[in-house]
Amino acid sequence: MKSALFPIRRSRLLSSIATVASLVFAIATDRPVYAGEDPVPIRIGAISPFTGDGARYGEAARSGIDLAVSEINAKGGIHGRQVSIQYEDDKGNPKDAVSAFNKLVHADGVPAVLGPFYSGNVLAVAPIANRERVVLLTGSATSDNIREAGEFVFRVCPSNDEQARTLARYARERLQLKSAFILYRNADYGVTLWKAFEKTFVDMGGVIVGKEAVDPDASTVKAQLTLVKAAKPDLIFAAMHYPEASALLRESKEMGVPSLIMGTDGAHDPKLLELAGNAAENSYWVTIGWGNLNPDSAASMFHKAYRSRYHQEPGVYSGLYYDAAHVLANAMTAVTSTMDGSSIHNALVNIRYEGPTGVTKFDQKHDVSKSFTVYQVKEGNFIPVQ
Asked: What pLDDT digit, counting tens, does each position of 195-232 carry?
């Protein structure tokens, strides 16, 4: 019995060896690879907070990426191969972002990563990305310091300095506010924002009457608001994310602080309105504007596709990560050599892509030029005022 089966087993073994050899050769030469009848997908990494206080941000990023990937795959993928996203949860902190990135690079072998979401996490991962020559493409990290993070770091969102200038100009020119108290998230995001806001506001004749840090995701800011109330500023400039910004709105109303509140893109989220309730009314918040909204524009088509898939309106972060995924796919499609980080990097620097958040074209620092829009909360909704 054994001698009768041996030739069959030997034949199967040789066939298996041949199949493995052909797969290894195909991966090395970057041609379409087949496992049975299906092409082996091109795997891309994505890092965002999917648990913890920032989980809503992560889900916004995921929805935009998933929509983009479904479109890319429906059109044949990249070089005939489908695209697969390997998601990793950084829980919103730099340590976990580094661990997630190392896993994606060393265990999963990805040549590019979408994210991380937070600026501090991008800055923590950037040195490893540059050393390993793996592309890092974020759709949300706005810190000014990212433009110096290295040659393998790109972003499809504009930097903090532009949104801070937008708010400062609006406060001085449109609202004629003369004094401001700065409350900022005690992280790179908040620090770079308050510095840019202060410079523009003061250059335009405004006065900064105080400045206080707020712990990330703080549930109360009453101590800081006591100082604000004593200073009596026209404006509270809030460089925050929605967890601490919602506390600011609720508690400023409870404490009778009359100062107008104006804040940054990290808080421009439906969750802010949910957590703050009617305390958010008449406050101002900025975020990147949508691109051309004509009926046949990329922005309009994205909104229609997003509503069809998710049965709700998209937030701007979903639009940014949708754009990031398409930008990366376009760069990878342009690669004619081995699909590695270096070749993708070389393709990205020459990309010009127009999506729902406008035109993505990288400058020498891998930054983009896109405009911001100021919104005011009216009847529980963000209404554009600029």
From this structure: 999 999 999 999 999 999 999 999 999 999 999 999 99
pTM (global) more than 0.85 = no
Query: Among 371, 318, 352, which residue's Cα sits nearest to residue 114?
Result: 318
Residue written as token pair 């910004």: 245
- Residue matched to tokens 């808080």: 267
Q: How far apart are CA 354 and CA 36, in angstroms?
A: 37
Q: Which of 272, 275, 271 is nearest to 284 (CA)?
A: 272
pLDDT digits (tens, 9 = 90+) for 321-349: 999 999 999 999 999 888 999 999 999 99
Q: How long, in residues, is the chain?
A: 386
How far apart CA 54 and CA 63 sit, in angstroms, is 15
Which residue, chain included where needed, has tokens 């937070």? 118
92: alpha, beta or left, given left = phi > 0 and alpha = psi -120 to 50? Answer: left
Instruction: Fill in the DSSP letter of residue 315.
Output: P
DSSP string, 11-69: HHHHHHHHHHHHHHHHHHHT---EETTEEPPEEEEEEE--SSTTHHHHHHHHHHHHHHH
User: What's the CA gap between 375 and 385, in Å, rounded?
Assistant: 5
